[in-house]
Amino acid sequence: STSSVYESEAVGFEGDHFFNLVARIETDIAVGKLYQGLRKIEDAAGRDRSQARFSSRSLDIDILTYDNLHGTFDGIRLPREEILHNAFVLQPLAELAPEDIHPAKQLSYRQLWQSFDKNTQQLWVVPFEF
């Protein structure tokens, strides 16, 4: 399942708007293998890894959470820190999994979104058909 698609201004640099969504998947694949598989999907979509970290990109897939893991697993820090700092991550996550609990904060994503300073970043739902 997926959240709505959200459009937002670039955060951290001047650039084109971004489109973001959160997807929920079920897998038994270890975190590191999942990460490598997602990188292959990004590469197949034309991701240019030579660009600066904060720049436009064709596709960026991040593992936000994995079960209730909290810490570093296969070199991946979970839950992903951006959840707490970026509206374009937290709002779609709160839409898709409002009652799920952030493993470090022990608050639901709905609660985290309700307390988020929404004046810091603007985003809006855009019509999108899969």
Describe the structure.
The structure is a single chain. The protein contains four helices and five strands, in the order ββαββαααβ. The radius of gyration is 15 Å and the shape is globular. With 130 residues, it is an alpha+beta fold.
What oligomeric assembly is this protein in? Answer: single chain
Q: Let me know the number of strands.
A: 5
- Residue share in β-strands: 5-15%
Question: Structural class of the secondary structure composition?
Answer: alpha+beta
Q: What's the arrangement of strands in the largest beta sheet?
A: 2-1-5
Helix percent reads 25-40%
Helix-strand pattern: EEHEEHHHE
Low-confidence stretches: none
Distance between the termini: 11 Å
Radius of gyration of CA atoms, rounded to a whole number: 15 Å
Main beta-sheet strand count, sense and barrel state: 3 strands, antiparallel
Q: Let me know the average pLDDT.
A: 90
Name the shape in a single word.
Answer: globular
Number of helical stretches of at least 4 residues: 4
Concise account of the structure shown:
The protein has helices spanning 31-44, 82-85, 87-96, 109-115; strands at residues 5-8, 18-20, 71-73, 76-78, 123-126.
